[in-house]
């Protein structure tokens, strides 16, 4: 199957009249759809489960939850976020290329687009109350990635191993700081237990550790309190979620920038190399699959087993860091997830080229084309099902049961998204974002007569 584009409606792109559809590349929409649906696999436990939800079964191989979790870690954890970031990077080139080829600057328009995305992210986190929002980060980091869009692909791709090493060093330093606080706290407790009067240094150490522990390692009583808040009113849920969202968006922002930036730059590189536009041969995609899974899967399986054995709960993790200042196994993470992510993409591309699962591919393409709307829909559905002001199912389901809902949402979006795009040019949030970016109302309805017919069928 050759490279296909969607060009039902094409308008000249200029500053006063932006194009409605400019040769959308189907395979990129399909990959974005895969990433969008896959992200829900990793997000849904954090909509629905209390802290430390894996501890009761994370070493019990006879438990269904264990194996569902194992599959998620091996095939999806980190890979879907990497995939989404990569496609976002490719989207930067898609947004700017036609404008720049016509001799027009896309800079201000792109930055307006990212500013609005950042604001959407803030609303998503603090009004819809999803602490795991990525729109805010993509808006900010997209502005940085834009500056590198004209760099040669080989230099863009070098950002991934560089950032992986920098990320490992940064996380190690962060953990060593926590470790230092914990060891000082343990020394102070030992002195206190021995009947010694504590000085200012020891009291400060105990206070510092308590503050860190409360932020990152809540005790069982605090977990019960947090669960009660999540099962409460909107105001109670917000009182728990908003501080965590705020910390992630501001306090720990510096730790989030580099990973997403490197993956966006990788997406730009892969677009320029033709990997994402079907310019590679099938043998090259097959080779990517073999290398990605052949190296990535043994690495992630080893890492999963190691972490399962050594870090089944908070107590064992703290005991580990009392003895070890560096967890070298964590260095595997970024490399295995990029390898497996690349294999996932190559596999999807190969299936698309072979013409298999055409109905599914059409659904994925539509989901990817309306990814913004579908992403927010995930949050609306999950908050209304699990949070206290909705159906109040928080901490009520088994881990594996969450994926019945995930599959239900997938089926719904795979069916509804193509139907929607028969009558509309964009998803509703995509359209709103476009209007705000261009500063004027944009075309929305594709087929007016069909829209009127659907309207009457639904509402009469």
TrEMBL record:
Residues 270-439 form the DUF418 domain. The keyword Amino-acid biosynthesis does not apply. The keyword Membrane applies. The chain crosses the membrane at residues 27-46, 66-94, 106-123, 129-148, 155-174, 252-273, 285-306, 326-352, 372-391, 403-425, 437-458. Coiled coil: none annotated. Keywords: Membrane, Transmembrane, Transmembrane helix. It holds the Pfam family DUF418. It comes from the Bacteria. PANTHER family: INNER MEMBRANE PROTEIN. This is DUF418 domain-containing protein. It comes from Aquiflexum balticum DSM 16537.
